[in-house]
User: Fold these one by one.
Assistant:
Number 1:
Amino acid sequence: MVASIFLGFVTTILGYITQGQTINSFILAVAAVYALLIATMILTNNIRDIKKDAGFRKTLAMRLGKQKAKLLLSVILTAIYALVLFEVFLQILPITSLISFLAIPAAFKLRGCFRQEASNAENMQSMGWAAKHHWSFGLLLAISIWTG
């Protein structure tokens, strides 16, 4: 989860500062959402590679076990949307940010790759769906902020 801090929080905040802005509650709120998005990418990769990584890596997914790691992925995916809703309610994000909810089908497809009866081929597609979810959600949220 250290990577989600550096690839989510830090990169978002640095990009904001580079544009001449100062750190405030808005950018911290947005960075938190992107940190969770990055966490889904990393966790998805770790769940998919549990067997391959055994013996030389000790990832969070390995420590939790596959079932609990899949549950954590569901919790993080849900938290992303709950956080956006909460930030809209607090008027940190504009109401247009709710357009990011159009990425929910990609989140369901991602989680579906790890359902109990999923084939190995579906498990292998998980990173593709994680990337599609990250891209669609991130783009929709960015557009909503720019236009809101």
Note: The mean pLDDT is 91.
Number 2:
Amino acid sequence: MRSGYKDLIVWREAIQLNTLVFQMSGALPSRLRFVYADQMQRASLSIASNIAEGYGRSSRAELRRFCRISFGSAMELETQLCSLEALGSFPDPKLEHVQEKLNLVLRLLYGFIQSL
């Protein structure tokens, strides 16, 4: 019997990423918060959520499918962070920290998908 998705390093790192995104998005200037905050929060929450949902499915193929969806959400978040960075109006060091955590999650998720 598997011990649970909460024991997966990739899921734990995705939860940490989600926390960082919520903290960072709350610090955005109001003109950027309206456009970016909700999108980034939803994308980051989707990463961990899809890992958990896939884990709860009945087959390895389903887990792989949901992890691929999770990877897509991570790429969506990466695009939003790149766009925010390109605007150059949010020099907060939290942005760099979120990008580093996202890169870790992407690497872990890619490896996890390959192992399935």
Note: The CA atoms of residues 28 and 75 lie 21 Å apart.
Number 3:
Amino acid sequence: MKFWAKTCRSGEVKVIEEEITFDRTVVKHPRKSDNCRRYLDTLAPSRPYMPISAAHKSGHLARRTFIATTKIIESLKTAATTPHRRESAAKTEPPTTFVAIVAHAWICVVRAKETEHESTLHFRADCRSRVNPPISYGYCGNCVKVCVVKSRVADLLGEGGFGHACGAIQEAIDDAGRDPLKGCEDWA
């Protein structure tokens, strides 16, 4: 993903220096034997077929594109360093661009949905460099972890809510870095 983003920004096509591999044996999974089958058997023993056209479509939602300029991103990062940020994640340095944009989007969605008590955010983290031993960036298999962040809506929409959201997201990223294969038996 980083290679693709960098290539798009630069406008130049570069050759990947590492050999691309699809060999899944490079992922040292501690309990790899039948996790996927067990997971599917638990969730959907008969695995019914559901055509895509049967999916629920909501008429009240609209698609939007937001442009995040450098100036907007910097103002988000500055807003996140307020004293209201989560105590365990309170840092003097501003959050990363990813954390700032995701926190802003999360709060916007919570406001729009008018959620009452608790909100949950899911995002993915690339674990190739986080596992032991690290996996080459030439690996083209799935090595992505779902990170889950939960927060009370009052904390997100209250004073210092943006800093709170940034802190919660950063905690999830830090947790993914400490133990990237935690819960891997539930991955599918």
Note: DSSP finds six helices and two strands in the chain.
